[in-house]
């Protein structure tokens, strides 16, 4: 049934309504230094690559809503899988003004379906000074295992990578491959933003490990509020 487009649209609408209610009734806090926040809100005029583990996806719109307060003209585009779950996620994000680029992760021994065109699309956006977002362990995992595309995009574009995490309390953990975190209404959400990371064009492996370590470190950072 979930393969039927009508069912997908209905499910996407219901999920979008729930998340909208949960996020709007929660208390927000953005943990970011001034320089990082200026970059994320487009005040520097420079491109940026926002990355977060797939499990944090439901809480991330808080960052977008807060950034739009400081820069109403800000645009954000996310890399979304061509899988049916990805199409549903893209539909939900469109409700919140987030654009999408279709793509898929490259797996060892398998053809890259859409990855090359997605890379070109993201590079074009970054070259125009835009901000893009992606989940480096998506769309199907393994959980918290970096795919090489993130470092490749950063190395080719020269854009800094900003790791973030959406810490939601209270929340539910879904029994999915990523153990996705679903915020509950009237909770507290902290968006933790790490220091921007530059990836050298000829040292992508080191860049990949640095980004993964930075993402994991955000789980252990103390809230400031």
Architecture blueprint of SSEs:
Elements: H1 5-24, E1 27-31, H2 34-40, E2 48-51, H3 61-70, E3 76-81, H4 84-95, E4 99-103, H5 115-127, E5 131-134, H6 149-157, E6 161-173, E7 181-193, H7 204-218
Strand content: 15-25%
Q: CATH superfamily membership, which one?
A: Glycerol-3-phosphate (1)-acyltransferase
> Percentage of helical residues?
25-40%
- Kindly provide the name of the CATH class: Alpha Beta
The number of distinct helices, counting runs of at least 4 residues, comes to: 7
CATH architecture: 3-Layer(aba) Sandwich
What is the count of structural domains?
1
Unreliable runs? 105-111
Q: Report the average pLDDT across residues.
A: 86
The tally of beta strands, per DSSP, is: 7
User: What fold name stands as the CATH topology?
Assistant: Glycerol-3-phosphate (1)-acyltransferase
Q: Compute the separation of the termini in Å.
A: 44 Å
Which features characterize this protein?
7-stranded mixed sheet, Glycerol-3-phosphate (1)-acyltransferase, globular, 225 residues, alpha/beta, 7 strands
Can you walk me through this structure?
The protein has 7 helices and 7 strands. The protein is α/β, with parallel strands linked by helices and about 220 residues long. It has a single domain, classed as 3-Layer(aba) Sandwich (Glycerol-3-phosphate (1)-acyltransferase), CATH 3.40.1130. Strands 1-7-6-2-5-3-4 form a 7-stranded mixed β-sheet, sandwiched between helices. Helix 5 runs parallel beside helix 6 and helix 6 packs across helix 7.
């Amino acid at each position: 049934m979930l393969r039927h487009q009508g069912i997908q649209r209905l499910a996407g609408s219901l999920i979008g309504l729930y998340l909208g209610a949960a996020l709007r009734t929660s208390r927000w806090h953005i943990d970011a230094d001034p320089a990082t926040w200026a970059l994320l809100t487009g005040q520097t005029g420079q491109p940026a690559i926002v990355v977060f583990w797939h499990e944090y996806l439901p809480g991330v719109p808080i960052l977008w809503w807060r950034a739009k307060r400081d820069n109403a003209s800000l645009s954000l585009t996310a890399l979304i899988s061509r899988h049916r779950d990805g199409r549903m996620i893209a539909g939900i994000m469109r409700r919140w003004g987030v654009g999408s680029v279709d793509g898929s992760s490259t797996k060892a021994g398998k053809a890259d379906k859409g990855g090359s065109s997605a890379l070109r699309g993201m590079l074009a956006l970054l070259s125009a000074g835009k901000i893009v977002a992606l989940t480096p362990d998506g769309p199907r995992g393994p959980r918290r295992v970096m795919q090489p595309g993130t470092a490749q995009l950063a190395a080719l574009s020269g854009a800094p990578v900003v790791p973030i995490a959406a810490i939601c309390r209270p929340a539910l953990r879904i029994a999915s491959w990523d153990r996705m975190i679903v915020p509950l209404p009237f909770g507290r959400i902290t968006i933790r933003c790490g220091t921007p990371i530059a990836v050298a064009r000829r040292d992508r492996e080191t860049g990949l490990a640095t980004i993964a370590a930075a993402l994991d470190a955000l789980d252990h950072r103390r809230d400031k509020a």
